Amino acid sequence: VGEFGSILHFDGSAWMLMDSGTTEHLRGVWGNSGANVFAVGDNGTLLHYDGSGWSAMSSGTPAHLRGVWGSSGNDIYVVGDYQILHYDGIGWSAVSYGATPRSFTGVWGTSSSDIFAVGSSGSILHYDGASWNAMNSGTPSYLTGVWGISSTDVFAVGYNGAIIHYDGSSWTFMDSATS
Fold it and tell me: What burial letters (b/e) apply to 112-148, b meaning 16+ CB within 10 Å?
C-alpha cells in the first residue's frame, strides 16, 4: 500500500495495481486470507478487501492510521495518531490505553493477549488481554515498526537507526551501525 490510495497485489508471478476506491495515503496492510485483508491510512481511512474488491469501513476517527495487525479476522487492532482501534468482527471501536497520548505507527502480536504497539518518543505499549501497559523502551527515538518471532523475541525499529530487542523481560538497545 502507499501514496494516493495505491494498492499492489502479487499473484505469484506479477504485481498488479488494484482499485482501492480512495486517494488517501495508505500506511499499513494486514490480512489472514486472500478474502479478508485490511488497509489503513490517512484521515481515518479503513478499507476491507473481501476477495473481489476493496470497500471503505467507518473508523469513527479523522486520525491518520498507520499500522494494522490481527490475531484473527475478528480480532484486529489499528494504531495511529493518538488512536488504538479494535475490530471485533462487527465494528470498530476506540480502545482506552491509559497512557500519555502518543502517536503510534506499528502494531504486532503473537496472540489476542500479547500485542505490542510502538510510536513517538520511544513509546511502547503491551496488551496482555485485559489492559494496555506502558513499557520502558530505553530510547527516546520515534519507533516506526515492531515485529517478532515469539513473545520473548520481539524487535522494534525507528528513527536515527534505533533497533531495540525484547527478550520477554526488558527492551535492550542493539547497535545498528547507522544513524
Answer: eebbbbbbbebbbbbbeeeebeebebebebbbbbbeb
Residue 70, all three cell numbers:
490481527
**Model confidence pTM above 0.85:** yes
d(CA 37, CA 13): 20
* pLDDT digit string (tens) for the chain, length 179 residues: 999 999 999 999 999 999 999 999 999 999 999 999 999 999 999 999 999 999 999 999 999 999 999 999 999 999 999 999 999 999 999 999 876 778 999 999 999 999 999 999 999 999 999 999 999 999 999 999 999 999 999 999 999 999 999 999 999 999 999 88
Determine the residue type at 117.
A
